[in-house]
Amino acid sequence: MHGQVLILLGPFVDANNTKVMEGEACLSGSEEPACLEEVYVRFFAELRKGLEPLRAARLATQVFILPSLDEAVNFHPLPQPPMDIMLAQWLEEEATDLLQLQQMGVRFLSNPAHIELNGIKVSITSADALSPILREMVLRPEGRKVEEALRLLLKQRCLFPAVPRDPAQVYEAKAQALDFPWDGISPQICIFPSPLAVMNGAVVENTFFVNPGALCRQAASGSFAELWIQPAEGVSTMKDRVRVDLKKLG
C-alpha cells in the first residue's frame, strides 16, 4: 500500500557535487559531459516516470517537492519560490516533463513551506534549521542541548531566527515567510535535514521533529524517513500519534 504523502527535498542536482562543480556532469549511460539544462530535463523525465504509478493509483499519493539552496541552478535565497517557477522559464520548450508533473497534480512548494495535511500543521525546509541555533548557544543548557535548541526555534516562531542570518542566503524583504504562519501556534510536525541525526523523532512542546537525512551521499548509503501518523481520536500528543522510521538505502 502506498503512503498517502511523499515529500521530496532538494537538491536534485547538487551544486556541491564534484562533477557538477567541474562542469563534467554526465547523463546516465553516457560518458560525455552534459550541460545542466540536459541534466534537469533528464531528471524531470525520470521523476515523472517514477511518480506516475503513485499518482495513478486508486489511493493517489500526494507529492510535494521543495527546492534547495544547494540546487545547481539556484537563483534565489530563502525564501525560495517553488521549483517549477524557478526552472520552467529557464528550460523553456524543454520543460515538457516538468509541465506534465504539474498536470499530474504534483505540488511544487516554496522553501520553506508551511502546509496542513489532514488538519496537521507541518513546516518543511530543505535547509538545516538546527545547526545555526546550536552555534548560537554559548551557555550549556540544563536539559539536552539539541532539545533546548529546538525549543528555542519554536519559541522564536521561526525556522531561521538567528541574526546575522544563518544560512546567510536570506532575502530580508521576504523573511516573514520563514515564520510559522499560524498566529502564534507552532507546527505539529517539523521536517528538515540535519547532520545531527539525534534530533530525529524528538518531541518538543508537542512538535514532532523529523530529520530525513540525505538520500544520496558520495561516501555512504543514503537514507529517508518514513512516518506513520495515527488519527487524533483518543490520542492527545504527537509523540503518541507519530512514529518515524529511518530507512537506509543499499
Concise description?
With 250 residues, this protein is an alpha/beta fold. It folds into 2 domains: 1-111, Purple Acid Phosphatase, chain A, domain 2 (4-Layer Sandwich), CATH 3.60.21; 115-250, no CATH class.
Total number of beta strands:
10
Query: How many strands, which pairing sense, and closed or not: the largest β-sheet?
Result: 5 strands, mixed
Q: State the domain count.
A: 2
CA-based shape:
globular
Estimated radius of gyration: 19 Å
Q: Tell me what portion of residues adopts beta-strand conformation.
A: 15-25%
Broad structural category: alpha/beta
Major β-sheet strand ordering: 4-5-6-8-7
Structural commentary:
With 250 residues, the protein is of the alpha/beta class. It has 2 domains: 1-111, Purple Acid Phosphatase, chain A, domain 2; 115-250, no CATH class. 25% of the residues lie in helices and 18% in strands. It has helices at 18-21, 36-56, 83-91, 96-103, 131-136, 145-155, 238-241; strands at residues 5-9, 62-66, 107-108, 113-117, 120-124, 189-191, 203-204, 207-210, 223-229, 242-248. The strands form 3 sheets. A 5-stranded mixed beta sheet has the order 4-5-6-8-7. α2 (36-56) runs parallel beside α4 (96-103). The two termini are 22 Å apart. The mean pLDDT is 88.
